[in-house]
Amino acid sequence: MKYGHLLGILSAAIIIGLAYSVKAGRPYLAVGTLVLGVLLVQALNWYYNSKIERIKDERTELIDAKSTKNGYAVMSFLLFAEYVWEYAHGNMDVAVKLLVPLGVGSVVLLISQYYYGRAM
Q1: How many domains does one find in the chain?
Q2: Which of 16, 74, 85, 97 is 20 to 30 A off residue 23, Cα-Cα?
């Protein structure tokens, strides 16, 4: 799996875990989910950066932009699938809470597509 895909899956898991813990009324679970998710993202970043020698130039800037775009695309796809699942099963509270990060992810995708298009 690519770095962007793993980052998107981790981000979507954090958001879905936060939505469930808020719905269940368990604040400690929400804090634990957030802390564990942030630690996993940091570990993934450390692993990725330790395996690849970074030389900053135009190519790495484009690769970073494309990787971020791919990560947000995977996250948006997973969040939309979770939204459809929750909506189909009648869990409207969780479905509504998933709309906010889904909308933000869509805006970020549009901005990154614009940036990536200008950089090319």
Answers
A1: 1
A2: 74
